[in-house]
Each structure stands twice: as structure tokens, then as C-alpha cells.
């Protein structure tokens, strides 16, 4: 269970601060305990999610050490392109929903390399792939930015510098 003032990753929303834990009754249903979350990068937004939630993934944010280990796997992330658009889209959505940083890196790298390959033969990337890559980059960049105390748009260069060493 998370505590007030904990920072967590919440689904595809990203880094959130637990600002309160309280009991409430919604729509005449039984009283339940809720986390009240404030997304770090979406000001003026508050999310209430049941403490016993099982449908949307919530997890602790990574440590700085875990990020360093994660960045080291970037060059070796498995990138298997699935030719069938529907199957690929389902796989990519599943990876995105997992919220797992290693999965997000694999997803971003796979789509990036797929985009590069398609461009070299004069084709464009499937729109769904591009949207999923943007969502994955947002999640990964925001979490790493928060932990490293840099702006989210600085994360790609930070990773490039670390991988280049």
C-alpha cells in the first residue's frame, strides 16, 4: 500500500503524487478507500482510484540506480518487428499498459527501428505504432526526468550520452 506523499507510476498517466488516502462513497455504492493522486506533469488534475484497484497498474517509481541499469540495456533491447498490423498493435498496447520501463524501452526501440526501416524503403509507419511510441516515450521520459531532476525533453539526450560512454 502506498502512503501520502509517495510518488508512483499510475497506468498511462505517468508519475503521480499520493496527496491523500480517504474513504468515500460514490454513486450510492459501498464506502471504499481511495488514493487521491496528483499527476506531476499534468497540473490541476486530481485522480481518485480505489486502493484495492486491480485493473490499472500502479507501482513505485524507479530508483536512480535502477535507471542506470535500465539505460545500460537500451543498446541490447530485443526488437522483433511483427508484420501483422493488428497483432503488432495488440502486442504494443499490452507492452504500453504494462508500465514496465524495460518493456517501454523495448517498445520505443522496436518502433524506432521499424520506422527507420520503413523510411529506407519509402514507406510510412502505421499511425497506431507512432501513437503508441509517443505514449511510451512520454511515460518513460517523465519517470526518468522526475527521478533525475531534469526536464522530460532532456531525457533522450541524457540516455544517448549515457549509452555513448
TrEMBL record:
One BP term from GO: rRNA transcription
Entries under SUPFAM superfamilies matching the protein: CarD-like
Matching InterPro entries: CarD-like/TRCF_RID, CarD-like/TRCF_RID_sf, CarD-like_C, CarD-like_regulator, CarD_C
Entry superkingdom: Bacteria
Domain CarD-like/TRCF RNAP-interacting: 1-112
Entry-linked PANTHER family: RNA POLYMERASE-BINDING TRANSCRIPTION FACTOR CARD, TRANSCRIPTION FACTOR YDEB-RELATED
Protein name as catalogued: CarD family transcriptional regulator
